[in-house]
Amino acid sequence: MISSQLNTKSSAPSINPIERSLPPESFAQVFPFHFVFNRNLEILQAGKVLQRISPEGLIGGQVDDFFQIQRPKVALDFDALVKKSKKLFLIESIHQGFQLKGQLMPIESEEVMFFIGSLWVTDFSDLKDYGVKLQDFATHEPTSDFLYLLQARSTALTDTTHMAEELAAKQTELEQTLQVVQEKNNNLQVTLKQLETTQEQLIQSEKMASLGQLIAGIAHEINTPLGAIRSSVENISDFLERNLGALPSFFQDLTGECHQLFAELLDSANQDLVILSSREKRKLKRGNIRILEAEGIDQADDVADTLAELNYLEEIEVLVPRLQSVGGRQTLDMAYQFSTLLNSTKTIRTATDKAAKVVFALKSYSHFDHTGNKAPTNLIYDIETVLTLYQSQLKNGVEVIRNYEPIPTVSCYHDELSQVWTNLIHNALQAMDYQGTLTLDVQQQENQIQVKVADSGQGIPAEVMPKIFQPFFTTKPPGEGSGLGLDIVQKIVKKHEGDISVESEPGKTQFTVSIPLA
Question: Which residue of 254, 274, 293, 367 shows the fewest CB atoms closer than 10 Å?
């Protein structure tokens, strides 16, 4: 082996040659994406491909001028990085946006740090955007690279000179090594294909995660009508227990006037409720009390309240003679109890309809299509299903504006597109902290269906906008977001040969999804 000086700027402090298993020119070829920096975070050496795709001034520049650490969460400080050196690092280029994934290896005796890794992409087509070709990847089995480096480091510290001479004499072995590297690149291509096959599983996993977040709200949406049903049934049961035996004699004893009073009161109770302000109700009630007291009706306050409950607020003068007749007050009380029975049955009908709607929406959303084939789908119906599931989070502060135009059905992967609407609507609600306006537009634009989801939140910062579709990027606190939602949304839309875009400013963020009809 040989000992070789790192490539530094002339102003950099001189250090002893670093003992390692390869000279800089060979190291730069075998590990084309590596870089080396010292305690002052000055970049001393870099792989040939990394130098090619990075801006001018990489060698001799500062690490924090070119890169930022995405994972793990650690300060860009030499000693802090030494402590985290056993972790797997994800480093992002500040200027170009590409990401490097690999291992940090400190050489403590020289106070320098090696980053050994490779370009990390989830979409094979991204390589072209970064100016990288497959042949630029020299190795890329991370485990074998790391074990190799550990072994190289151990042997380098004991016999650097001998290894350098050996490398100079064995150029043929280096070529064989490069051939092995090519085989590793082939393995990388296989791995990329395997990653593509996991997309369906990721989509279903994200869908189940969204469903898990909805469960508490859905339980509340079902529990509320169940509570209303139970309360109404108890009212009905209580009425029957107290009055069932007395009903035959009550109806048998009804006189003509009381029979007419009973019918009028029930008819009033069954009419649409008169909508009055509190002030208007108080004014009418005071007037009714004066009328009843003037006619000598006992407990005029209670009688006026009962008539109000029966939706009878005006022209009560015509009722006074009947209320004064024998059995008039008993007829009033019985009519009130029957109206309570009627209201309980209406409550049960409304509650069962609401619970059935939530259950049907949940069933539609959780359905998984195992055929993997496209099917005709009404996108508006799917969006409304998602809104039903989020009802508990919408009703206490969110105004939903629906601008739906008549659209034809779309041939699509139903389960996957449902996940798109779920992610976009959920993100919109979180962005405005469940207080604001959610606007949904659905329309046909030539041969495409265009869906717009807009919220009235604070907007997306300009520096964040280019990253929102990157996998694992999230602005949410730890535990609240995986960073996969919008990445999956984008992949689903592309799978349908569609397009997704976003526009944002303070007070309005709008995602636009276009799905082709054909």
Answer: 367
Positive or negative, the Cα torsion across 181, 185, 186, 188?
positive
Instruction: Say which residue the tokens 């526009």 belong to.
Output: 503
Token code pair at residue 271: 């009419």
Beta pairing partners, 91: 69, 100
Q: Which two tokens stand for residue 428?
A: 């919109």
Task: Give pLDDT tens digits for 350-409.
Answer: 667 666 666 665 655 555 555 568 889 889 988 988 888 788 788 788 999 999 999 999
Pinpoint the alpha helices (H) of 170-299: 171-197, 199-243, 247-253, 256-270, 278-294
The model carries a pTM of 0.41
Which stretch of DSSP H or E encloses residue 119? strand 112-119
Beta carbons within 10 angstroms of residue 464's beta carbon? 12
Using CA atoms, how far apart are residues 184 and 174, in angstroms rounded to an integer? Answer: 15
The DSSP symbol for 317 reads G
Alpha-carbon distances, residue 329 vs 252, 255, 507 (angstroms)? 16, 13, 60
- What confidence tens digit (pLDDT) does each residue in 14-38 have? 334 444 455 677 677 778 889 999 9
* Residue showing tokens 């989509």: 203
Pairing of strands 436-445, 499-505: unpaired
CA distance 244 to 266: 18
What is the rounded distance in angstroms from the CA atom of residue 441 to the CA atom of residue 164?
68
Tokens at 195, concatenated? 């990653």
